[in-house]
Amino acid sequence: MMDTAKLVASLLLEIKAIKLSPTEPFTWASGWKSPIYCDNRKSLSYPAVRKVIRDEFVLRIKALYPDVELIAGVATGAIAHGVLVAEAMNLPFIYVRSQAKSHGLGNVIEGAYTPGQKTVIIEDLVSTGGSSLSAFQALKEAGLNVLGMLAIFTYEFSLATENFKSANCQLDTLSNYSSLLELALQTGNITREQLEILSRWRENPGGNWLL
Fold first, then answer.
1. Would you list the domain boundaries of the chain?
2. How many CB atoms lie within 10 A of CB 13?
3. What's the pTM value of the predicted model, to 2 decimals?
4. Rounded Cα distance, 6 and 8, in Å
5. Per-residue DSSP letters for 131-186?
6. Upper half-sphere CA count for residue 93 (Cβ side, 13 Å)
7. Shortest CA distance to 77 belongs to which of 37, 40, 115?
8. How far is the C-alpha of 133 from the C-alpha of 18, rounded, in Å?
9. Average pLDDT of the segment spanning 154-171
10. CA distances from 211 to 3, 39, 56, 97, 197 (A)
């Protein structure tokens, strides 16, 4: 039986939420060249896939954080997934903006909450961890008791590991880059030569990994 990490990776590959292109890389907003493109929002268009993701989130939260009182989604990619999880667990939901609104109340956090509430953050994707940890910090500054963060997928950059450790934020993910590559090789989505390129990229994403 396929484990959760490979199951989620297989579903994301199947619906093309994850695309692998080792020889013709994508360009991220940061300017980095990347052999992988991941858009987990696409999973929302597939009821069976979003249900698997929701259910796996719920199982993980119940196992790790049974005392959770509040679910927080990171805008914008994890808002819908967070709502699905909160609904399944009959818990209140809030979401965190990347920056304060420029009008109205100028909120960073949207929704009703009480300082001290035990909160679990839902995120869709973790790369370096910068935006995810900004949301974590905003919730902490609002007085919430953040138990940890769960994401659908992580590239497993060492920089992200260091950033989460420095912030003292526990991160757990449903799937990850290592499981994706192993699955892609097993299913013939990539060759061993392409696997080497993809592995080099994770070790040095901002460098000349194509060489």
1. 4-203
2. 17
3. 0.94
4. 5
5. HHHHHHHHHHHTT-EEEEEEEEEE---HHHHHHHHHHT--EEEEEEHHHHHHHHHH
6. 18
7. 40
8. 23
9. 96
10. 33, 26, 38, 38, 8
pLDDT digits (tens, 9 = 90+) for 74-121: 999 999 999 999 999 999 999 999 876 555 556 899 999 999 999 999
CA dist., res. 26 & res. 36, Å (int): 7
Question: CATH for 4-203?
Answer: 3.40.50.2020
Q: Are 151 and 171 in contact (CB under 8 A)?
A: yes
pLDDT at 101: 59
47: helix, strand or coil: helix
DSSP type of residue 200 = H
- Predicted local distance difference test score (pLDDT) of residue 207: 82
Give me 9's structure tokens.
């990776």
CA distance 126 to 163: 11
Q: In sequence order, what are the residues at sequence separation of 6 or more whose Cβ sits closer than 8 angstroms to the Cβ of residue 143?
A: 115, 116
- pLDDT bin (cut points 50, 70, 90) of residue 29 is confident
Instruction: Give a three-class secondary structure readout of 51-120.
Output: HHHHHHHHHHHHHHCCCCCEEEEECCCCHHHHHHHHHHHCCCEEEECCCCCCCCCCCCEECCCCCCCEEE
Q: Phi/psi zone of residue 180: left (φ > 0), alpha (ψ -120 to 50 degrees), beta?
A: alpha
Find all residues with CB under 8 Å of 161, minimum gap 6, and list them: none
Question: Cβ contacts of residue 19 below 8 Å, gap of 6+?
Answer: 26, 36, 37, 38
pLDDT value, residue 54 = 98
